[in-house]
Design brief:
This protein is mostly beta strands. Helix content is 0%, strand content 36%.
Length: 91
């Protein structure tokens, strides 16, 4: 009896990429006034590359506290270890 393993489900759905038309050559240059990349086509015309969203990184502190019997009264224990978790906000 041959020992065969079925192909993973995702690979059975794979197909070749569709053909795409060729992309015209562009030249990138930095605008000295704005310091932003500007793209030009083969005739020297400026090409709009579309708008890009912005994202922000924030850090939210987290803490761990002592467990039961840590000797503190009042129910809530003070943090004994701090770290931070990075959160990314995308538009």
């Amino acid at each position: 009896m041959p020992n065969t393993v079925p192909a993973p489900w995702g690979t059975t759905r794979m197909r070749p990429y569709a053909d795409t038309p060729p992309v015209a050559a562009l030249t990138a240059a930095i605008d000295p006034r704005t310091q932003v990349a500007v793209f030009h086509d083969q005739q020297g015309r400026t090409v709009e590359m579309g708008k890009h969203g912005t994202s922000t990184d924030t850090s939210a502190p987290t803490s761990t506290g002592g467990g039961d019997g840590d000797g503190q009264s009042g129910g809530q224990s003070q943090p004994t270890d701090l770290d931070s978790i990075t959160a990314n906000d995308q538009d």
